[in-house]
Amino acid sequence: MSGVLINLLIQVISGAICGNVAAGAAKNIDLGTLGNTIAGAIGGGAGGQLLGMLIPLLANSTATPDIGSIVGQIAGGGVAGAVLTAIVGALKNRTA
Question: How many whole angstroms separate alpha carbon 27 and alpha carbon 30?
Fold first, then answer.
């Protein structure tokens, strides 16, 4: 597999997990399990790719298997997934 695809998978999975964790921690932003997973995965993928563009060290974590860059991929995808889940959940509750 190419390095970009592996990075994207790491970011999407960590975003989906952290989206569910964020919604579990704050019940007022909960979208349901599937909604939290989808919003977190989209946020993790998009935010992780954006972070990779801003910080070139994180862009090629599979080309140079470094635990620090892999942890950076997980953290970037996770935070972005949690943030997007919180934003979508807050907007949903505000309109309801």
Answer: 5
Residue 49's Cα: distance from chain center in Å?
10
Task: Give the gyration radius of the chain's Cα atoms.
Answer: 14
What is the C-alpha to C-alpha distance for residues 60 and 89, in angstroms, rounded to an integer? 32
Global model pTM greater than 0.85: yes
- pLDDT tens per residue across span 66-77: 787 788 889 999
Residue-averaged pLDDT of the chain = 87
Domain count, the chain: 1
Q: Kindly state the percentage of the chain with pLDDT values over 90.
A: 58
Q: Is residue 96 part of a domain?
A: no
Amino acid at 58: L
Q: The domain containing residue 30 runs over which residues?
A: 3-91
- Does 60 reside within a domain? yes
DSSP 3-state assignment of 35?
helix
